[in-house]
Every structure is written in C-alpha cells, then in structure tokens.
Automatic annotation (TrEMBL):
The keyword Cytoplasm does not apply. It comes from the Eukaryota. This is procollagen-proline 4-dioxygenase. Belongs to the P4HA family. GO terms for cellular component: endoplasmic reticulum lumen. It holds the Pfam family 2OG-FeII_Oxy_3. Residues 1-23 form the signal peptide. Keywords: Dioxygenase, Endoplasmic reticulum, Glycoprotein, Iron, Metal-binding, Oxidoreductase, Signal, TPR repeat, Vitamin C. SMART domains: P4Hc. It comes from Phoxinus phoxinus. InterPro entries: Oxoglu/Fe-dep_dioxygenase_dom (IPR005123), P4H_N (IPR013547), P4HA-like (IPR045054), Pro_4_hyd_alph (IPR006620), Pro_4_hyd_alph_FE2OG_OXY (IPR044862), TPR-like_helical_dom_sf (IPR011990), TPR_P4H (IPR059068). Residues 378-477 form the Fe2OG dioxygenase domain.
Length: 492
C-alpha cells in the first residue's frame, strides 16, 4: 500500500471545489449553444421588424412630400407678389415653416433607437468565445488524434473558417495542427474567400518551419516566391531555411499525426481498452436489487450491474425517469455557470454546472439514490447538475481529498447518452464507463478505514459528439457512521 501510495501521490489531487463565474462561455456548455439558435432567430426577426418600420416610414415620407408638393402647386407663391404683399409673404412664411417642421418630424423619427434595444442582445458571442471554441476543437483533435478532414466529415468549413482555426492553433504554438488547417483552407479557396493564397502559403511555410519540417517550409516558401517574386522577406526566410536544412538531419513528418496515446487516461477515452480488462468486465454480474430489503424497492427493484470489482463500481439502470431528467435540466439551464476546481476556472474542467436547491423533484431523486445505496442523503451535498460543451471534459481527479468529513462516496447519474466520447474512465484500473441515459454509477472514494482509495481517480473524457448532462451526489463521511460499517484494517 505504502509504495503504491507514493507513486500515486505525485498525481495532483484535483478536488472539485465549485463556485460560480459569469461570462458567455459558449464552449463549456452544449446547452448554451442550443440557446444560441433561438437567439439567432430573434435577432433576424428583430432586424426584419426594424426594416419594415423603416420602410413604412419611407412610404409615409414619400406621401408627405407629395402632399407638400401638391399644396405648393395649388397655392403657388408668386415671388413678385410676395415681395410687395405682406399677407402673401406671411402665407409663404407660414407654409415653409410648417413644411420644415413636418420634414424634421419625419426624418428624425428614429426607428433605429426603438429597435436598437431589441437588437441589443447580451448573449451574442464575443471574439473571445469564437477563439475559445476554435481552441477547444483543436484540443479535441489533439486528444482524439483527428485531422481536419476527420472532424469536418459532417460539417465542412470554408477557407476563411479554416484559416481562423489555423491561426488559433498557430497562436498556441500547435504548429502541426495549424499547418493542417492552413492546408485545408488552401484546398477550399474560392473567389469569394477573403483569405488569400499568398497569406496561406506564408503561414504554411512558417508553420512547417516551426514544426521542424524544413523541406516543406522551403516548398511553400518557394511557391509564395513564385507568386510574389519581389517579396524580399520571403527570400531571406528561404535562405535561412535552406541553410538550416543543410545543418540539420531531423525532418519530422508534418502531414501525419502521431497516434500514440500518452496516458492510460487518453487510451481509455479513445476506447483502447485492453482485452484482459474487457473480459473481466464481462464476467461481472448483473442482477436486480432491493437495496438490502428496502421497502421502497421491494415492489420496484432496481436493475443493478457490477461494472468493476475493485474499487467496486455499480451501475443502477433506470434510476431516474425521463420526466425527472427533463425537470432537472429545466431547473438547471438558467442557473448554469462555468465549473471550477480548487484552482478556480481552469482547462482541467470545462463544463457548466449548478448545485440545485432541494425541491420536490430533486428530493425524489435524492431519495432514490439513498434507497439504492443505503446511505444517508441528509449530510450529503446538494445535487450537482453539469452540462458539457464542445470538448467538455474533466481531467483525472479525485472526488475526495483525504481530509475531514471527506466525500466518502459518489453517485453519478447520466442524464443523456453521448454519441462519441464523454465516458467516465478510471485510469488506475483501466475501466471506461459509457454514459447511458437514466442510469447512475456509484462507488466509494474512501476505504472502509477512511483513507482515500487512490484507484478511484477518474476523469470525464472530452465529449466529441453529443450533449452530455450528468448529476452528481457526493456523500460526506459524517452521517454515514451507522450505514457503512467501518474497518480498522489498513487493507479495506
Ligand atoms: C481520420 O483519418 C485518418 C486518415 O484519413 C484515418 O486513418 C483515421 O481512422 C480517421 N480517424 C477517425 C477517428 O475517424
Ligand atoms: C504527449 O506526448 C508528447 C511527447 O511525447 C507531448 O509533446 C504532448 O504534449 C503530450 N500530450 C499531452 C496531451 O499530454
Ligand atoms: C421543460 O421546458 C420546456 C421548454 O421550456 C417545456 O416545453 C417542457 O414542458 C418542460 N418540461 C417539464 C417536464 O417541465
């Protein structure tokens, strides 16, 4: 145990301490993106209403002009007469004054002001939101080893969009991904693109140089020089690249992504579970549970599946109804804010979340959890609902922190299926749990002796396709004294 602990202690214990932040944060919640659809519809509708109002005003002004012209036609003012007839002069004065007032009134009728408040949406994505979303896509590509053509199979990007992806990658010194995006952009250039070939060749050459692929840098630099023979800067760069190429032997392949998994976490998320592990998983049992004779479960037993033996991870199927899930999501939506860790908002955890106050539905869900686990929810934390956005994930962490009144156990409810990605993985033991809507998984974070079980380190894999909703119930040690028998042994 001691040796094992030493090796794992170096892993940073990221305890999920959650607080609230404001901001748009589109990329950290898929649900916020869904709301943007309605926002967009409203925006265009308002713009249409504004145009209609302006059009009506233009029509009105045209008819007023006609009336004014008619009046001068039927009641013409004779220059000679008005200079000697004071009544005629008075009439003219009055008429011009009234014309002026009418014109001022209608030209100053500022419909824009009326509609500007309608057009003033606070939820419109900012430039930062756009860069963050691009940045998340690139992180997904890195994680799941995806080329631009892999992730654009369903939705392609045009040359300008692809260049933006390249620029964001370039800014983050991710030169291989930058290069691949610039190449994708070059492939899709049309006469409508604002991106130019020269610009892309320059970035292709520069990305390849930074990545260390000098022959590729020289190739694109030369293409640029052919297009722009008087560009002295490019000439200087090409000379440098040629010199460096002569000096260096290494020539990494910028066209091919390295597909080796760095960590067990990444491998598990990518579905590279080894055969031994999955055999062991298949051998584990599935049965119906009545929560040790809990009267509430006697007539409606819960389907229970042992997902892993050590640490014991149990999945309960249909622990929550579709209607309950919909209500929980409805209550949560307006309250979601970016999830934090003990270190604040970091890229370790990209999701939006909220702790729900107890109401009928929340209490019913909590009671269900108490019934099947046999633990007391009285001392547990409030139900915590989480929605994961583009690339949303939670890197390997522990729910407990090996301290006073620790999080003894975790009950994690999946409130959606996730098409690709989003599994819950336990890198120390090689388990990957797929989200299954309506099911919940349960495990103890602490051994019976109260010490942290290092094998419960787990992670939420990045969501590649789908909208991931989960609800967490964290049980605390206090209040469970008579529910979970404790042990003085070092081994349990
Ligand atoms: C991405 O594309 C490469 C090469 O075309 C292919 O080998 C790989 O399987 C694709 N990956 C995924 C996840 O589709
Ligand atoms: C994976 O390993 C490579 C080198 O071995 C490193 O450059 C890269 O940053 C690692 N990726 C992650 C996500 O840790
Ligand atoms: C959830 O909200 C949606 C949209 O506002 C509404 O149509 C639906 O009836 C709500 N569902 C429940 C169960 O309250």
């Amino acid at each position: 145990m001691a040796i094992k602990e030493l090796t794992v202690v170096v892993v940073v214990v990221v305890f999920s301490w959650i607080a609230c932040t404001s901001g748009h944060e589109f990329f950290s919640s898929t649900d916020k993106v869904a709301q943007l659809f309605e926002e967009e519809e409203d925006l265009l509708t308002s713009f249409g209403l504004y145009i209609d109002a302006e059009e009506k005003n233009v029509k009105r002004m045209k008819s007023i002009l006609l009336v004014l012209q008619l009046l001068t036609y039927f009641d013409p003012a004779n220059p000679e007469k008005t200079t000697r007839d004071p009544v005629a002069a008075y009439k003219l004065l009055r008429r011009v004054r009234r014309e002026w007032l009418t014109i001022v009134e209608y030209t100053q009728l500022s419909l824009y002001k009326v509609y500007q408040t309608l057009l003033d949406y606070s939820n419109i994505p900012q430039a930062k939101d756009l860069n963050d979303a691009a940045s998340e896509l690139i992180r997904l590509q890195e994680f799941y080893k995806l080329y631009p053509h892999n992730i654009t199979r369903e939705t392609s990007l045009n040359a300008d969009e692809a260049k933006h992806m390249g620029l964001v990658a370039y800014d983050e010194d991710k030169f291989q991904h930058a290069f691949l995006w610039f190449l994708y952009s070059l492939d899709r250039l049309t006469e409508h693109s604002t991106t130019t070939e020269k610009e892309l060749l320059r970035f292709l050459s520069s990305s390849a140089y930074h990545f260390g692929s000098l022959p590729v840098a020289i190739y694109f630099g030369q293409r640029l020089l052919n297009l722009d023979p008087t560009n002295d800067e490019v000439k200087v760069e090409l000379n440098l690249y040629r010199y460096l190429r002569f000096e260096r032997n290494s020539n990494p392949d910028i066209f091919t992504l390295d597909t080796k998994s760095n960590t067990s976490y990444e491998a598990l998320c990518r579905g590279e579970v080894d055969e031994r592990t999955s055999k062991r998983q298949r051998a584990l049992s599935c049965r119906y549970s009545t929560g040790g004779g809990n009267p509430r479960l006697m007539y409606a037993p819960v389907k229970e599946e042992v997902e892993w033996d050590e640490p014991r991870i149990i999945r309960y199927h249909d622990i929550i109804s579709d209607r309950e899930m919909e209500i929980l999501k409805n209550i949560s939506r307006p309250q979601l804010s970016r999830s934090e860790t003990k270190q604040g908002v970091t890229n370790i955890r990209t999701s939006q979340s909220v702790f729900l106050k107890e109401d009928n539905t929340v209490a019913r869900v909590s009671q269900n959890i108490a019934d099947v686990t046999g633990l007391s929810v009285e001392s547990a934390e409030l139900l915590h609902v989480q929605n994961y956005g583009i690339g949303g994930r939670y890197e390997p962490h522990f729910d407990a922190w090996d301290g006073e009144n620790d999080r003894i156990a975790t009950f994690l409810i999946y409130m959606s299926d996730v098409e690709i990605g989003g599994a819950t993985v336990f890198p120390q033991v090689g388990v990957a749990l797929k989200p299954k809507k309506g099911s919940g998984v349960f495990w103890y974070n602490l051994h019976k002796n109260g010490r942290l079980d290092w094998d419960t380190q787990h992670a939420g894999c990045p969501v590649l396709v789908g909208n991931k909703w989960v609800a967490n119930k964290w049980f605390r040690e206090f209040g469970q004294e008579f529910r979970r028998p404790c042990s003085l042994s070092d081994w349990e």
